[in-house]
Amino acid sequence: MAKLDIQKIRQDFPILDQYVNDEPLVYLDNAATTQKPNQVLTCLSDYYHQDNANVHRGVHTLAERATHEYEAAREKLRAFIKAKSTKEVLFTRGTTTGLNWLARFAEEVLQPGDEVVVSIMEHHSNIIPWQQACRKTGAKLVYVYLKDGQLDMLDLENKISDKTKFVSLAHVSNVLGCINPIKKAALLAHQHGAYMVVDGAQSVPHMSIDVQDLDCDFLAFSGHKMLGPTGIGVLYGKEELLNQMSPVEFGGEMIDFVYEQEATWKELPWKFEAGTPNIADAIALGAAVDYLENLGMDNIHAYEQELVRYVLPKLQAIEGVTIYGPQDASERSGVIAFNIAGLHPHDAATALDYEGVAVRAGHHCAQPLINHLGISSAARASFYIYNTKEDCDKLVEAIIKTKEFFNGTLKIR
Ligand SMILES: Cc1ncc(COP(=O)(O)O)c(C=O)c1O
Q1: Which of 303, 122, 119, 281 is CA-nearest to residue 207?
Q2: Does the structural domain 42-294 have CATH classification 3.40.50.620?
Q3: Residue 1 has what pLDDT?
């Protein structure tokens, strides 16, 4: 049994305590963004009320305080993903920025005929930057497909070859909910001399991550999906690789010396952080990490799995509901994409909203996957630490009610 006191956790999230369309809000859009606890909101407000100053450049007390808090947040993020050094933790705007920076690095590395391996389940932010890098360099983007609703490991083994220079995979799919075997993929990539890139947008917020154990070369994730503010995220990279990479943005903060015709860069991690960074949000992301660590990432993962084990069979039992991804709860994270026969997912999501249940509908920024599944879109419920079994029941009830409303032919298998 999970060890979280969910009612106590919910008290930290005042936004959850509201009615939507005269129904208590059931927020199940956590894969898109999570809500923020009081601790994060207070941290943001305290920073602007008490400590606000620009970092690194000042010697006055406020500047020193802001710098100290900003770098302390970096150390919290380092410990959270078990990186060796804070030099390996770059603050970015989010997953998308991190992956774009890596694709820029790829443009320096890739030669015509080289290959970049991704999977068909990737989010657009782990596809388009690589498309661009391949287009500019003459390299080829190669896709790994699915077996039984998850990554086909045999296909992965076949697709990774000595031509492969980068393998870039989601740790957890934002549509299928499957958890990809990154450690195994990293081993395969390294056996062929390729870099292993991990899109951690849907894994880092939900499970214990150890970049050294995974042996990934890079990991990108977003603060807003893990209780932190929008506009802040992290790109982790192995120190020796980040040292080889050129900065992507240039300007203040990232330089050592500037001459009339050239410049030299600061050491890691600041070489990559041009301009005034997103100081307040980085510090508040540190507060989000404190909050998650206090609950325990293993407890969070266990609790989400408990919710999925509870709700998945109930959803599977509703006639006409198709669930995408692995059908076994033990192989899933708390993301469940589904369709209701005869109902457009946007209509389904709107109808669920009438019941106070917030789910997402659309292509989930994964059009190649949606095409591959032979559908035009899907609805998606995604769970986090403040969701309860009652939320699960409400989702199931609301789907059944929606079906009744649209066709009046409810049957439970
Ligand atoms: C798997 C995955 N990768 C990348 C992203 C992009 O994250 P962001 O928009 O925070 O950069 C998302 C966001 O939904 C995601 O789910």
Answers
A1: 303
A2: no
A3: 46
Contacts of 257 (CB under 8 A, 6+ apart): 263, 264
Q: Enumerate the domain spans of the chain.
A: 6-30+296-407, 42-294
How far apart CA 49 and CA 68 sit, in angstroms, is 16
**CA angle (365, 385, 349) in 5-degree steps:** 45
The answer to whether the bond into 269 is cis (omega within 30° of 0) is yes
Instruction: Indicate the top mutation candidate among 30, 33, 96, 182 to test ligand 1's pocket, ranked by most ligand atoms within 8 A of CB.
Output: 96
* Torsional sign, CA 51, 56, 57, 59: positive
Q: Is 134 a catalytic residue?
A: no
User: From ligand 1's centre to the CA of 373, what distance in Å?
Assistant: 20
pLDDT tens by residue, 58-88:
789 999 999 999 999 999 999 999 999 999 9
**What pLDDT was estimated at residue 216?**
98
**What percent of the chain clears pLDDT 90, i.e. is strictly above it?**
96
Q: pLDDT value at position 413? A: 44
Give the residues of the chain that fall short of pLDDT 50: 1, 410-413
Residue 343: which of 266, 259, 409, 254 has the closest Cα? 409
Q: What is the DSSP letter of 266?
A: P
Distance 123 CA to ligand 1 centre (A): 7
Architecture of domain 6-30+296-407: Alpha-Beta Complex (3.90)
Pocket of ligand 1 (CB under 6 A): 31, 94-96, 123, 125-126, 170, 174, 199, 201-202, 222, 365
* Ligand 1 atom closest to residue 233's alpha carbon, by position in its atom list: 10
pLDDT in tens, 215-242: 999 999 999 999 999 999 999 999 999 9
